[in-house]
């Protein structure tokens, strides 16, 4: 349970002021009655019935006609003042809801904000300034890391592949794996900081076909087949074909590496904008179907030799295109990875 109960500031203000009005009017009611008694110069006869008649007469003729309209007018005025005063805060809330790493230079406006809220708005803007500075520092680190890490690995790989190199052939494979991990870490950093443009049209058929063609030699090397089928043509109005292609490529690579010899990896583009990669590998255990998409999480099989970053990058890339990535068991054995872009895909041509 939350430590503090949530409440509506508008309702609380209206309720509190309404109660205050009722208390004031209640306290003044005896005065209204006394004034009515004096004005009408009535003599209250003894007996409950006579007093009750007089009291009813005064309430109906003097108290209610004055207090009820006054109370209603107060409430209407209070509701209007509270709503107009809180309107800028609601607009600021909608604006703040759109903040992300791609809009680090935006700030909350102080125009029309009540004086009591200004310190909070200024504190939030100051916090956003510090966050923007931190992201700028991380961008510089990413650019430096790309140069400082890739270059030594490329030199080391070249030396290991030379004719005079007496080191174990496994060292070259380890260097390749290190270079791949570095590239994946840098990709994650770029995705987190939204450094990739997402304003280009994406032809889903072309992206899938390109990845299948590029990876077909890898399938032949692993003595597997690679097939592609599509139900119609589909596109995205805006996105990044390279980024989405890398996500699809990762799924196909994993499927090829984990499929037994002689099996076929199927890539399907189904209506409406759903991409499926089907393999005949060991599959993903039920208890790992969610964790496998987290960074540095891998299945039980070590056949791929990866660091467990590829699926995390693919998940982020698909999410930037308004889609989701999931995995299920394939009938007859294997796994089915599904990229669901049905919310953003449209028929093409």
Written account of the structure:
By secondary structure, the chain is α+β, with helices and mostly antiparallel strands. The protein folds into 3 domains: 9-94, no CATH class; 119-192, no CATH class; 200-347, Heat Shock Protein 90, CATH 3.30.565.10. It has 7 helices and 8 strands; from the N terminus they run ααααβαββαββαβββ. The strands form 2 sheets. A 5-stranded mixed sheet has the order 2-4-5-7-6. A 3-stranded antiparallel sheet has the order 1-3-8. The protein starts with 8 loop residues before the first helix and ends with a strand.
Q: What attributes does this structure have?
A:
5-stranded mixed sheet, disordered N terminus, 3-stranded antiparallel sheet, Heat Shock Protein 90, 56% helix, alpha+beta, elongated, 349 residues, 3 domains
Summarize the structure.
By secondary structure, the protein is of the alpha+beta class. It has 7 helices and 8 strands; from the N terminus they run H-H-H-H-E-H-E-E-H-E-E-H-E-E-E.
Strand content: 5-15%
| Major sheet attributes | 5 strands, mixed
Radius of gyration: 35 Å
Gross geometry? elongated
State the end-to-end CA separation. 53 Å
CATH A-level architecture of the largest domain: 2-Layer Sandwich
Number of domains: 3
CATH topology assignment of the largest domain = Heat Shock Protein 90
CATH superfamily of the largest domain: Histidine kinase-like ATPase, C-terminal domain
CATH C-level class of the largest domain: Alpha Beta
Q: Low-confidence runs (pLDDT<50, min 5 residues)? A: 1-7
Report strand order across the widest sheet.
2-4-5-7-6
Percentage of residues assigned to helices:
55-70%
How many runs of DSSP E, i.e. beta strands? 8
């Amino acid at each position: 349970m939350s430590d503090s109960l949530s409440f509506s500031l508008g309702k609380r203000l209206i309720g509190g002021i309404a109660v205050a009005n009722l208390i004031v009017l209640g306290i003044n009611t005896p005065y209204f009655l006394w004034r009515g008694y004096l004005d009408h110069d009535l003599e209250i006869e003894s007996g409950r019935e006579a007093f009750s008649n007089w009291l009813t007469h005064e309430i109906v003729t003097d108290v209610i006609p004055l207090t009820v309209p006054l109370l209603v007018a107060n409430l209407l005025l209070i509701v209007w003042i509270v709503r107009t005063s809180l309107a800028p805060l609601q607009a600021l809330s909608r604006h703040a809801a759109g903040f992300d790493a791609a809009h680090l230079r935006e700030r909350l406006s102080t125009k029309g904000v009540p004086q009591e809220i200004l310190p909070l708005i200024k504190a939030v803007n100051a916090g956003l300034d510090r966050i923007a500075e931190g992201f700028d520092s991380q961008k510089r680190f990413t650019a430096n890391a790309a140069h400082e890490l890739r270059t030594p690995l490329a030199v080391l790989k070249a030396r290991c592949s030379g004719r005079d190199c007496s080191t174990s052939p496994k060292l070259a494979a380890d260097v390749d794996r290190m270079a791949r991990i570095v590239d994946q870490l840098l990709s994650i950093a770029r995705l987190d900081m939204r450094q990739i443009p997402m304003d280009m049209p994406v032809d889903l058929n072309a992206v899938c076909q390109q990845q299948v063609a590029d990876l077909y030699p890898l399938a032949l090397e692993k003595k597997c087949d690679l097939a592609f089928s599509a139900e119609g043509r589909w596109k995205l109005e805006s996105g990044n074909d390279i980024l989405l292609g890398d996500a699809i490529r990762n799924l196909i690579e994993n499927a090829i590496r984990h499929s037994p010899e002689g099996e076929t990896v199927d890539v399907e583009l189904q209506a409406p904008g759903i991409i499926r990669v089907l393999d005949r590998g060991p599959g993903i255990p039920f208890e790992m179907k969610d964790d496998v998409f987290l960074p540095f999480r891998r299945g039980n099989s070590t056949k791929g030799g990866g660091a467990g970053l590829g699926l995390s990058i693919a998940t982020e890339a698909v999410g930037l295109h308004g889609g989701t990535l999931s995995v299920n068991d394939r009938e007859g054995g294997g796994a089915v990875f599904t990229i669901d872009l049905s919310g953003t895909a449209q028929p093409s041509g």
